[in-house]
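We both want to read C-alpha cells more fluently, so let's practise on a single case. Once you have written the record down, we can walk along the chain together.
***
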Amino acid sequence: MMHSTDFSKGKVWQNIVAQSIPLILAQLVQLLYNVVDRIYIGHLPGADSMALTGIGLVFPLTTLIAAFTFLFGTGGTPLFSIARGAEFVRDVKPGEIVIVDKKGMRSIETHCGGKSSLCVFEFVYFARPDSVVDGASVHNARLRAGAFLALEHPVQADVIIGVPDSGLDAALGFARQSGIPYGVGFIKNRYIGRTFIQPTQGQRENAVKLKLNAVRATVQGKRVVMIDDSIVRGTTMKRIVSLLREAGATEVHIRISSPPFTNPCYFGTDIDSKDKLIACRMSIDEIRQELGADSLGYLSINSVKQIAENCSLNFCSACFDGEYPAEIPQETHKDKFESRISESEDRAPLS
C-alpha cells in the first residue's frame, strides 16, 4: 500500500525537524561542553521544557540569549564565541531553577537566599581566563594573585615564566609587580589534557612528559621564577622543574598562586583523601627539596580570598582551610568515575 504525503501543509518537514531536535541538542551540548567547564541540563518529566539549575554551592552558571534561543553555561564570555549576536542576560542565582518551555523562560527562586560558597578554585584554575564569574573577571583575578604572590614571596631572579595555561596570567601579574621581565618558558602540547586528574601515578608522569617543552632560549643560564596555580600530588611540578634544569636554568624558584592544598575536595576536584596531597605529608621546605627547587612560596589564604574583585558571592576555600560549607561524605570510593555503570552497587535502575 502506498501512502501519500501532503507537502503543502509542511507535515513532512515538521516531522523531520521534530526528529532532528534531539540530535541538534546533543550536538549543541557537546559543543558547549568543549567550550565551557560545566553545564547543567535537566528535563522536567511530563513537560515540553528544559530546566537548568545554578548549583549554588560551588559552581557558577550563566544565561545568554540569541535569536530566541537560550544558552546556559559556566563562565559566560566563552559562549559568545559560538553564539554570534548573543546577549548576556544574567547569572543564575545560587539555588535558582530556570525553566525554558513554550512560554519562554521563567524562574523558581524558592531555594535562593541561603549562604553562597563559590569555589575559589574557579578563579585560580578551573575557569577560562576570558570568563566573568558572578561579576568578577577571571583574568584580572589571576593577575591579582600573581601580584599578591610577588609581595608575599619576593625573590631575586632574571625571568618570570608561567606554566600553561592557568599559571600564565598569575606570572604576568607577578612580573608587573616585581619588575622582573616576563618570558615564555614553556610550549604546551594542546592534545594532552589536565594531568592532575589522571587516576594513576604512571599515567600522570607519562602525561607530563608529553604535555610541556621548556623554551631553552628563555631559561638557559638564568634564575627562573616559575608560577603555577597549585601543587596537588607534586608529580607534575617535579617533572617541570627537571625540564627547566635540563634546559639550562641556573636557579628554579617556584611560586604558587594558591595556598597549600591540605584538605580533600568533595565538590569538584574529586580529591577525596589527604593521602594524595603532598602538603599533608611534608612541610613547605620538604616539598621544595622533593621538587628540586631553590625556593618555594604559596599564596596566603587571606590573599586568595581577595583576588576576585567585584564578585557577588562568598567563597568556599575548604581545600585550603578545611572549612566546608556543607556536610561532607563519611565514606568515599577511589576513582569512582572510572567504575562501569554495571559495577555500581547502589545504582538506580535505567529507564
Residues 1-22, 28-47, 49-57, 336-351 have pLDDT under 50 and may be disordered. The longest helix spans residues 11-35. The radius of gyration is 23 Å.
